[in-house]
């Protein structure tokens, strides 16, 4: 289905052509003066030079052709040459009724669906999840859902950090604590028994202990580095321990991400890319892309147009060890082989931007990825505490994700109990649903690349630009629809009637914009614009609600029209929050 902007742009083009002007001038936009009009066209101003005419004259010529248009209630020409448009109430209602019939509420699927991989989440196995990983999960999940809604073929890959030094540290610490385990023997040939020699609780304690100890003791650190080296070079017993760590950790990660409503299609990681490294390195050498620089193997990626130095991509350290660059390049080899994607999007902390510039350039230059594949880095900013500094616990430590979520849920629980709309037991579950919305909306309503302040009080408020406010609005609509049902009505299949007052029309105009807004959100991968849209939608709904007798309306047809509008508003809101990655409770 065409969006309303597309329809009225087509109408405007025709009017320009009929008046003898270039149709390219007929660009219609949302009005930036909503007090005067709803949409506007400034094409006459742009055409003045070309036609050597006053813009006002051009605008009047064009407007004369729009008088009979079924779309507009009024077409006003204002000095110096704006064409201000107001949609007719009939047009609005009929468009909304068409929208309601569409499964995707008027969003058209991409004509050429792309195969897209989104690399997000990126937790490091055996290390606790912290707030930095939260942003990647929240933003990546929303972008995945948005692109999928548009009809693209999207695969979300968690890209585990599962091949680094932390693994060597854990092996070393385990060897110290449980030397009787068979894995540390060089001649270990056994299989990988099911039962892990530690629980997730122990594992979470082992890593920080070992990490702190290694900082103080060089021998220990050397041993951990060596263990990492042996693991990466196929030492069988260490691989067995690695398997245990993976099993225990991944089970825990799955539980954590499930609580966040974040779902990955692929649970691949750095370790999976390792087998692609030898051939890739050989290719880079054979084709002359790689050179040795003080013993290290590097690929130059500086370009002539750079005004800053872009250091070479590091392929192998002088001791032959692979690095972060290497792993990401090998992962691209793997992705190209398995999926041949049209686009790969990385949702990672923006402080890693240089790394991705190097990797993308190297991949394109060396043919690891075809020229036409889009490689995009979507860097996000830091989540700060109220003091404007990176988020910390009260004691000044790194905030663990679980604790942060608990803090929000507790606050939500308190607020929900204050409202006394639900029983204690339900309040707990509701607090989790609303708490998640508070966190996700708090994050997504900011442009991803910007830093933002995580403010528990503000995020959990039922008023203002917050997740709970949006949910509260949805719950309010649900409750009206339920009452309508209880009184014997059926809210499905009713027809929206032309608006009779300004609040009703304002709500309708906001609902009507959904597919235009969605397309922009998708095009710009900008979930924050979807948040801005639903915030405005919730505001328009609440104004309408306060100004209108809905259930007590005596004219049954009019009431049915309101109910139809409410149903559609609810569908749009629910679709949007699903695209943002959260849901609404029944009551709150
Ligand atoms: N594990 C990394 C970290 O915690 C993030 C991984 C991002 N993705 C990637 N393909 N490099 O910083």
From TrEMBL:
It comes from the Bacteria. Its main location: cytoplasm. It catalyses: tRNA(Arg) + L-arginine + ATP = L-arginyl-tRNA(Arg) + AMP + diphosphate. The keyword Ligase applies. It holds the Pfam family tRNA-synt_1d. It is found in: Cytoplasm. Keywords: Aminoacyl-tRNA synthetase, ATP-binding, Cytoplasm, Ligase, Nucleotide-binding, Protein biosynthesis. GO terms for molecular function: arginine-tRNA ligase activity. Residues 470-588 form the DALR anticodon binding domain. Transmembrane segments: none annotated. SMART domains: Arg_tRNA_synt_N, DALR_1. A motif ('HIGH' region) lies at residues 123-133. It is an enzyme of class 6 (ligase). InterPro entries: aa-tRNA-synth_I_CS, Arg-tRNA-ligase, Arg-tRNA-synth_N, Arg-tRNA-synth_N_sf, ArgRS_core, DALR_anticod-bd, Rossmann-like_a/b/a_fold, tRNAsynth_Ia_anticodon-bd. Its EC number is 6.1.1.19. Residues 2-87 form the Arginyl tRNA synthetase N-terminal domain. Monomer. HAMAP family: Arg_tRNA_synth (MF_00123). Belongs to the class-I aminoacyl-tRNA synthetase family. NCBIfam families: argS. This is Arginine--tRNA ligase.
